[in-house]
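Exercise 7. Predict the joint structure of the components listed below.
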Amino acid sequence: MKTIYLDNNATTQVAPPVLEAMLPYFSQLYGNPSSMHSFGGQVGRSLRQAREQVAALIGASADEIIFTSCGTESDNAAIRSALHAYPDKRHIVTSRVEHPAVRSLVSHLAVQGYRVTEIPVDNLGRLDMDRYRVSLTPDTAIVSLMWANNETGVLFPVEEAAEIAENRGILFHTDAVQAVGKIPINMGKTSIDMLSLSGHKLHAAKGVGALYVRKGTKFSPFLIGGHQEKGRRGGTENTSGIVGLGKACELAAQNMQPENTKVKQLRDKLENGLLKSIPNSRVNGDRSWRLPNTTSISFEFVEGEAILLLLDEFHICASSGSACTSGSLQPSHVLRAMGVPFTMAHGSIRFSLSIYNTEDEIDFVLDKVPGVIEKLRGLSPYWNVDKMVCS
Amino acid sequence: MWEYTEKLKDHFLNPRNVGEIDDADGVGEEGSIACGDALKLAFKLDENGRIKEAKFKTFGCASAIATASALTEMLKGKSLEEAEKITNQDIVDYLGGLPPEKMHCSVMGRQALDRAIANYRGVSGEAVEGKIVCECFGVTEKEIEKAVRENNLSSIEEVTNFTKAGGGCGNCHDAIQQIIDQIRSKSEIKPTAKGRLTNIQKIRMIEETLEREIRPSLRQDGGDIELIDVEGNRVLVATRGACATCQASQQTIKNFVEMKLRELVTPELVVEEVAQ
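Solution:
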């Protein structure tokens, strides 16, 4: 049976042209870009091209791009650099729904004595901008807010938030790992100082990411070592990964239109179809302001891990915000921050699409999911078929 | 992805003995929808006092469903005395193992069985209860003690894996450590008995009361109310529609919603509105 991959916010397929671009760097083009000989030098030229491709996708200039190993490294580098640049400031502002790459880092920093403010969201996952405005203080070293939420796809108004921070003289970082390549981004027109992106979320390989650092922003390296990346990130470059990331960014720029029309259409078809065919289901998050490829749907009175494993029988890949899938005992912090009722939170499923999904696949999923939910509701002591509680 | 055994997967994909028994001799419920898993177990005895039929309904993950299915199979043909001797480890062994983080599923099965047998013997749920230690998951002192004894647990993490206690806010970690220490030093702990509804009953009754008694009146005024969570006797709700912006909604919640719930569910309930 064919795998139907609807888990693209977890990771994506390496695009065939990206793989093709990468392969020579595993074999004949194995030189070190820092070498003085032209054998290594030619690899250095490829890295420059990749830097330009990445910069072009987000409207930046090439020297504002630092290659890293992943989104998590980019987030760590950005936030720690800001704290290092302003050693007298001890306050960090972030949100309640950040990815663990930011969330766990700031809790770790809180233990070390930093004060952390987590801005709440409303029940549609929208940032409380009033709370955000009043949270900024002269002691605030950095604001870190995600551009798009990985679980719900909901977008934060980071450009507006960055402008507010800029007016107060505060550095602004955004974890844009889920947004880059899916929605248009033009750093030339924003006040955002730093932006994290990750290769494997946009059809490049795992193990490569980038950090955008606005020209003129104070930056101190996270990995200290050689002079690579102009001394901003030590360590011999992941040449194949970086070349692949460059290619993936070039493709993403080309695919932005289909992403926002074809992928969005398929997502909407899937979402509306499921809501229609399955009673007591609802979408988590602001449907009017989110990524084109993501939907988080809750099916009341059933548990997410069980849903995923039954979908797995049909080779359908998705993910869940339920407690059981994470190994923790509580549903996802994102759904809890949004006040999703517990009858819904445990039964949440995230479908995240890519340009490689087809209408046939969506039809197949629409055909299979209702039976899965019905089977599990038939096992559930809370579900009363005759009454349809909570309808 | 969890490493589940083939037998566990089989019991998940093809659960045995799903359903309820209309004239059951014993019924036991354990867990709650807030905790993420719950089990309702029922059995019927034959003329010789042996379990003729055992059925279950489960809300929960694959291992919660599979452990319940396995337990019903294990119960068939057993006398109650034999059934009582089934430990959560026996259920785990029957399935060929469970990931450590999922051991609480087997404990849930064991506890539902305790309750069903107590129900048959006419002992009210109170005897099986005890002081709540973990507020997040409603786990009692007695349940933790039992899991520690039967599975020889020695750390808070293990207690969390087996009972869920301590897996939420973490406020009860000291209390759990005390229980572990006391049991390991073999000192006596006297649980205080206190009657209460099971979580399943309580939540279901609250939902039903909201739907039947409360929502229709609120909807007349263009408002609505949503149940967000139940923590012990704290009922957390959010107001919707006109209620969300109404100045008097706080009074409505206290004088109408809370009063109704106290009257129709249990007098100890306190209704709180959570900010949305």
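Discussion. Residues 199-220 of chain B form the longest helix (22 residues).
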